[in-house]
Amino acid sequence: MTPGPGELAAALAGKGYFADEGLCTAIHLALRLGRPLLLEGEPGVGKTEVAAVLSRVTGLELIRLQCFEGLDSGQALYEWDYPKQLLQVRVAESRGQEAGDLYREEFLLRRPLLRAVQAERGAVLLIDEIDRADSEFEAFLLEFLGDFQITIPELGTVRAGTPPIVVLTSNRTRELHDALKRRCLYHWIAFPEPDRERAILRASVPGLEERAAEGLVRAVQRVRRLPLLKRPGIAESVEWARGAMALAEGGDPWPVALRRALGLLIKDEEDTRLLLDHAEELFTDA
């Protein structure tokens, strides 16, 4: 039975992922209805980690398809093992025999989508950064997302006995097609509110004092309100906390440690200059 949003939130938190009510509801409905879950949001807000934590919660294998420009169906679905087929032909010729059927399952190289379909217990399939793939690849995905099946001309149609849990992520580097979105349940992951970000820091950075966590979260929230080229995500705030704590343990006062560790929070020269221009207001009570 699919856990409700409240139970799901507790299960995710038990694995170190602190989801808000909206995200828990979206995950619950995706699981209940058997729909792919399409997650968008700023980089670093935890989109990819949703699939990883669902794998840990359910005990299912995590299968990841990393998208990139030029990704084709062979790399995502399956390929035939041509060297192995050629070896079969040569061995048969050397023995004066027929090579036989070269399109059997033993010659099939299973890529992420086929592996997810054939997983006996089911699987969590992460299709990461779908916006980086070409629009042609999106069109190819429609059959898979609609019916959880794959057609292999030489072998026929392979259907999932247990449909996989599918999570797609996008950073919105381009707009996705409506046909893809219609097959998914959509959710936008926003930056966390202060209380949730403090909970994430407490779980991710053991030993971080509560007062230091509060000051760091105040600073991060202020930083995100600046007109930056790239606003820092949760991953960056966690790394910033770890770096600042290491410097503080070496003797730096906490506000000084935060400033010295800025390279873990901000990854652009112009953004760094902007932060330094606003350092007084950003770090006064951090």
TrEMBL record:
It comes from the Bacteria. Pfam families: AAA_5. Residues 33-195 form the AAA+ ATPase domain. One of its GO terms (molecular function) is ATP hydrolysis activity. InterPro entries: AAA+_ATPase (IPR003593), ATPase_dyneun-rel_AAA (IPR011704), CbbQ/NirQ/NorQ/GpvN (IPR050764), P-loop_NTPase (IPR027417). PANTHER family: MAGNESIUM-CHELATASE SUBUNIT CHLD (PTHR42759:SF1), MOXR FAMILY PROTEIN (PTHR42759). This is MoxR-like ATPase.
